[in-house]
Amino acid sequence: MRTLTRVLEGIGSTLQLLVQSLSHVPTLPRQWGRFIEQCYLIGYTTLPIVAILSFFIGSVLALQSGYSMENFGAKQFIGSLVGLSIARELGPVMCAILLAGRVGSAIAAELASMKVYQEIDALETMNIPPARILVLPRLAAVLVMMPVLAIIANLVGWFGGAIVAKYTDFIAIDPPAYFAALRRFMEFKDVLNGLIKAEVFGFAVVLVSCNIGLNTRGGPREIGASVTRAVVTSLILILVLDYFVTKALL
Amino acid sequence: MQNSQQTARVGLFFILGVALIWVTFETLSGGKVFKDQGYHIVAGFTSLKELKTGDEVRMAGVKIGEVEKTRLAGRRAEALLRISPDVKIKADATATIVMAGLIGTNYIGIDLGSEAAADLRDGAEIKTAVTPDLNSVMSQIGELGKKIEGALGNLGGALSGDGKSPGIIQKVDQLVTENRENLAQTTGNLRSITDKMNRGEGTLGKLINDPVLYTDLQSALSEIRGGANEAKTFIANAQAILDEVKRGQGAIGALVYDQKAADDLKASIANFRTVSDNLAKGKGTLGQLLNDDTLIRDTRAIMRKADRALDGLDDAGPLTAVGVVANGLF
Prior knowledge:
Number of helices of chain A: 9
Largest interface: A-B, 25 and 19 residues
Strand content of chain B: 5-15%
Largest sheet of chain B: 7 strands, mixed, barrel
Number of strands of chain A: 0
Order of helices and strands of chain A: HHHHHHHHH
Strand content of chain A: under 5%
Strand order of the largest sheet of chain B: 1-4-3-2-6-5-7
Number of helices of chain B: 11
Number of strands of chain B: 7
Oligomer: heterodimer
Radius of gyration of chain A: 21 Å
Distance between the termini of chain A: 36 Å
Low-confidence stretches of chain B: none
Mean pLDDT of chain A: 92
Largest sheet of chain A: none
Structural class of chain A: mainly alpha
């Protein structure tokens, strides 16, 4: 019962935080500096790990599908399979998971420590809503950066698949054939679906992490607990949202 | 400084992302970057089947463009094709929707057309032809399957019966059941016959097992063959004789084919008949000789007289012999 209450409390406070943040949207141009800083943290610094992970996801996907499809002579469709899988599903989901691990945890830790060390209380005392200067720039930054991360993840993943398809003995499909197969069964709609999903996941991760960070109660030990909670909640939320967004977009 | 560098990086990153999204969009949605390259032709079909935007247009298997747009135009479907500017399509060329694979990839195939025909211009309409698609082929196969199923059902019914009348299998079963003893006896007989044959008993067994019989049979056969050869020679000779006869050569030939000889023969036979008639009637010397027994009686009397005369001769001597004979005779 207490758990349920806490879950409902979390959902309620998250929505409340969202509404508060949206109410401060007009102040965004005046927070340009913060916005850029968050863009840098969320997008630019996350790029390397996203690229590495996507490359190897594309590679292993090509390897596995090549191994399986070889049995029934459908090797030439590896490009389509890798392309569609990454664009529609793996690209956005992996980006969001990395975001939860790298950015969500950082946000939760930062806001939780601010809360624990009463910096949030100080802001509120100065009539500066934390939703305005701490949450809104992050949400805006993730909305701008997430599609960029996702498209890079897609392209790097596709190229990873192409390289494996060419240099694996039992697959041996040249990049032109690989990309021709990829193009044949894919439309921009598929990529757009992925980008929309990435946007939704990223927004949810940042919002939930901010909320958990701001709602930290107790001493410094709670900072760690909040970080853990933020990451776990984000991961669960990503996969649950994934199902519903995919269904809505189909 | 730190802040402006950060801003620049974020800006660069963002521009990179937007550029990548744009490139992906252009690549996957038919490459509108190149929309000014090439010219358009329209291909109208009753159904575009699985054809979609971005599918290839090929001439004799070579890619010459792609489907830029598909649309409904009244009672038909139209595909707007963008063709490379260096490829000319003849006015009498025909476009068909060709299936490249079983899983729904299609392209538009255009044939070369005739050399003399004019080139199609931008916006012109190309002739099209309908090709049977996989669905129609599948439905035909389905109908075929139904027919086969019906035929097999009939066959099955005939074999196993339909409840009212027994099927072939049941009839055979019944036949076998009813005649089990006969069959057993027959097979027993057959076995004893084959056993005997194996052991070389009986005519057939000897025929099969005894090599002497085989040799005899072979020599008999060779004799028959010799006889046949002789018969052949005989027939050939007969044929040669017949040929000669036909040619009118030889006695028979002359008889059969020479009118004069035949007439002579006929006359001879007639004469012979006259002679024999006369003989029968006792005409002439020979006839009398044959038919008149007085002659034989006279002859016998003469002989008796001669006998007596000879006896007298023995007594009278040779000088009176002539006189006695003459006396006896006359």
